[in-house]
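Below: protein 1.
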Amino acid sequence: MQGKRNGRSRSLVGMLLAVAVLLSSGGSLAGAQDIAPRLIPDRIISIPMSDGVKLAAAVYLPSDAHGKYPVLLAASAYRFDNDGVPAMAIYPFMELGPVRYYTQHGYIYVHMDVRGTGRSGGTYTYQSRREQRDLYEAIEWIAKQPWSTGKIGGVGQSYYARAQWFMGAQHPPHLACIAPYDGNVDTYHASAYTGGIPGDYPDSWFEGLRSMNLDPRNGPPRVVAYDYTLQALRHNLYDDFWKERTVAEQLPTVKVPTFSIGVWGKVDLHLNGNIVGFQRVSGPKKLLVFGGANVEQAVADYSSIGFHETYLRPFYDWCLKGEQTSYVSAPSVRYALTGTDKILIADAWPPAGINYETLFLNNGPTGSVVSLNDGKLDTAAPDASTAPTVVTYPNAGWTNGVVGRGPDGRPDPARRVLTFTTPPLDRDTQVVGPIELILYASSSNTDTDFFVKLSDQAPNTDDDLKASLNPRYTIVTKGWLRASHRALDSKWSLPHAPWYTDAKEQPLHPGQVYKFDIAVMPTAHLFKKGSRIRLELANGDSAVTDAPFTHRYGPRKVGADTIYHDAQHPSELLIPILPAATNGAAQ
């Protein structure tokens, strides 16, 4: 929610980058406006594939091009004919970074249309095994060209980042490194069916992809006939369709140097991919995580020259040119501590020194928030007589998803969901690492959904209390689980980071109590003294707080769920606390 009541922005990357650039070079952070409004390829090439299909690519050369250069390869379905449109909110697919910045620093930049898109031949089938093989063959073909040194690095954000993960898993001999920025490793779990719940984003994303191919800035129109949206609907379980299109299980085989760069603010889509990608790859690796408020901000940050000057080019110069750069001495893990202007360092993720604190769900009231129950989070375990919390749905007061309106007429996301809130914190509290919610619940239905939000709730003001207005807040992180998808994957689950098999549905028996282990996405956030930690529970979400990553609220969602929090069923939130004394030095 970006309105008056939602509290401060979580976008820190602009400030952090500005500080880093000023400290390192005495300059100022360059923004998206540094990219030229016109980006015309120096040449367009045709890359032959082993099955006879030819893939088209735009090549951007250094201005004094002669001899051989290392190559950065970007591959997506967004077509190079759209290169050069401004990296603004209206064009969220501009995820190449500053192309000419790299050609000015001794790189050739190649932007390839994946098969079935743009000017490339073949049929598009959304990151299928053939599209992955194309990456291998394109890298090896580029390496043999007279203008290439034979050292290839992956580049780009989102789809381009996912392509890089696949590059690494294909093991082409001439791939020297990858730097996936803001890119997930598992579309099923991170986009199409978060927690097993069908999402709206695949449909809106794919319509955008079709549009940019049919109506490009330059070049001939291209109809993408493949229906990804329909395929996603047909495959509601993690079956062979999705397994072919995920790289998560192949990551341990990736051995090239990997610089995984995530964005805390992209918790709904890419964040966990960058965390998991870093954890699972087996080659030399480093992790960097920024704040970032939303989709558009993440694109704008990646388009800034300051970002590449400070972070990415030192990585490429080391991997592709053999130079001893600042990347070599940089810590293994750097991450923004949201709620502050600091970047902290660690040797691993999660950082060492974390202590898990158990906060039990219990009845309230806390008097700090108007919600359906105003429950509390308590360090004391509940007793045997604690009554459960019952929520019926849909709620008559919902006006936009699960969001209703406050007395001032404005959207109020907390008012018509369940909340469990701590007392005001008696000290600054750093929550850093993966988070787990253990929930005991039953339903009147054979299935139900759990949408979890962890928020930083600001202190109440006297005026708000008098007007029955809820306090300002910031959503810190989220979690999702469809009850029938509760089966855990023992191979890939980590402490406090459950992973689900999603292999089959396990319907509920109405009225029976079940234990659910819900993964709440990792974070790093400072809850300041006097603020409160708030857990929100609902069975849906809203465009007010979650656009564009909303989920469908279907006709089957009519009934009642019961949340248990007694001695026999101690529902609890396990949060990682990093003592201030164990912090790495701020960067």
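Below: protein 2.
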Amino acid sequence: MRSRLTFILRYYAILVAVFILQKPLFMLFAGKGHSFSLADCLSVMYHGAGMDLSTSAYVSIIPWIVVLASIFIHKLNPRKVLRLYHIIAALALSLIFVADISLYPFWQFKLDASVFLYLDSPGEATASASTGYLIIRILAILAYAIIIYALLNRTTPKSFDYSSEKRSGKSLAFFALIIAGGLLFLAIRGGVKESVMNVGRAYFSQDQFLNHSAVNPAFSLFSSIGKTKDLSRQYRFMDEDKAKRLFNDFYTQGRDTSLSIRLLNTQKPNILVIVMESFGSTYTNPTDPEYTSQSVTPNWWKIAKEGILFNNLWCNSYRTDRGTVSIFSGFPAFPKTSLMKQPKVVEKLPRLAEAFIVKGYQTHFLYGGDINFTNTKGYLITNGFRNIVSDTDFSAKEQRTNKWGVDDAITFKFLEKQLRSLESPWFYGFLTLSSHEPFDVPDKILEDKVYNSAAYTDRCLGEFIRSLKESSLWEDLLIIILPDHNMLYRQSYSPEYFRCRMIWTGGAITEPGIEINTILNQSDVAATLMAQLGMDIKDFPLSRNILSPSYINPGAFCCYNNGFVIADSLSSIIYDLDKESVKESGSDKAETGKALLQRIKIAY
């Protein structure tokens, strides 16, 4: 039994060592133009170790199966059985590593599935490379593969000691290996938390080269398969001239910083963006006859009446990862595609937090849950949030107050305390979580479990705002309160599902108590806010300043898993992409929605 476990441990340790040692090599050979220190190198190795542990576990699964089988098949020769696997694994890992080093100086992102887009034209892909360049890479692949093969093959025994194994010993060996397999599984998924291992877990620095250096290239490649989509080749509905005309009609209005109304009394307020989990119309305007907005979200409505209520906000999508990108990157969502989960795409998105850094702001983000979920950490760091607080910054007891992490009552109190200690000006993002399924909160305010969770978060919000209004922070403060998406639990997809509301409040606003009924998307919040502060919005091409006199034909564009919604001030439609038909009645806006999907592209 010991020899089997020893083999698995040695095999796994060799792979971990190989992956960890790849990092300084990557930095050395792919880091032309980047400066880094020994401390940076050690940080890269440390922060990337979790992904190396996960990738090593993936590669160790086949040997683990062979070892498990050897308990019952005494004639099995592990080295002979695994020889072909070692050849394939060594060549694959070597090819991935050398390709990553070779392509990074040109691409400036880690190797991912987009490399397969070029395999149908190998001649064009290698046209700019000299013969000597290619020969050196081929030799490097072969040499590195030989080293990996030798390490794996040499540590694999030809047989195990069966002579001393009786029935009890065989059973013990079997259960010990089952436990070892369970540990490999935990390593693969990255632990026992809600989020599984993802590229963003390795991110730790504002220097993207250091983040990229920490990412395991094999993990990056295989985890991106099925996620990285060439959007420029999708959604081909019409000729480009027509698509461009419809696209321009929708997105070129509101592309200036002129104002029809000034909402702020200062050009440099402290800014807090509170993204309320699922706080769409399901919570703020419940349709259940037993519950009203005053019984479910009375504090939200009180704040709205005392602030500025944007009464016609439309969420860009139906999940937190999509809504977060729309809010902080001013970028629309796509059906069946999460931009946040694609690190290479994230790096090309507009960055609201970074824009405020340029303006002299400190940037902060707070989320009481697992910040690694759906690559959230990688996205926030890339966006420009320099100081990020998540569940692991709270006590073990506090981390267990909600299924998703730290309860809203705790994070709201933490937020208030931290805001009092910050040096102005600051830009702060906060994502709540208690109103998310399974809707478990510590206090019972309403009988209905779903509405009770909303009422609980609403109470937390009300207490937080009341406390801030009594502090010196209020005078120069702008608070923006909006949902990440609507609650789907009691609504099927329809145009109205995406319709939500947004509040601006704080001492920095000039027009408390007014309503703005202009249609806007979450993706328009960035440009609308920046225009109020006199900031340039050219780097946010798909975000519109809805308070510009040029915003004359308001409209909203929203996406769900297999379709989209188009709305204007007169009507709205929902289009099913699978059935290729309009699902809801209304004016014929389907062509505009198709044109937007066709023209909204990201250069891969």
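The mean pLDDT is 90.
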